[in-house]
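Before a colleague's protein record goes any further, I have to sign it off. What it holds is a sequence and that sequence's fold in token form. My question to you is simply how this chain folds and whether the tokens agree. Thanks in advance; the entry in question is below:
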Amino acid sequence: MRFLMAAVLFGTAVMAQQKPVFGVKAGLNVSDLKVQGENNAFDTKLGLHFGGLAHFHLTNQVAFQPEIQFSAQGGEYKNNDELKLNYINVPLMFQYMFNNGFRVEAGPQLGFMVNAEQENVSGDVGDRYKKVDVGLGFGLNYLSYSGFGVGGRYNLGLSNINETTPDIMNRVFQASVFYMFDNDHKAKSR
């Protein structure tokens, strides 16, 4: 949690001093839930994510990229009952950018649960799950000179989202397409 707070404070200081390049992002989630003490309690579930981003250069090759995105996550029980967990996620990615358009990224993520639904249970089951999720993201992206890009990111949930036992953590792989606005800064953001 201290690392997350330090990243937020650092990001705030950076954003106050740099002109950002803004962008939009969308893609596919492949998610599941890791249950403590159980292997493969859930199968993967497909969902979508979409949102916006701001890209701040710290140096020519290092950048800070906060994002805000809606993310449909969860998992499918072995009996084909689906658990849908929808979040507003705030990833705070630090990126190292290579000169060829590729960039690697890592950073903390804070997620806020919007709602939770279980296929065979009527109504919202959100009271069974914690409203805040803390995770860590790792990814690889490619940005073209046109401003369009593609990327992949793995979000590793670090906090228990279950209100009771056992501990349950989010696991999400995201495949994304994105577009960076502001033609004057596209080459610089590459």
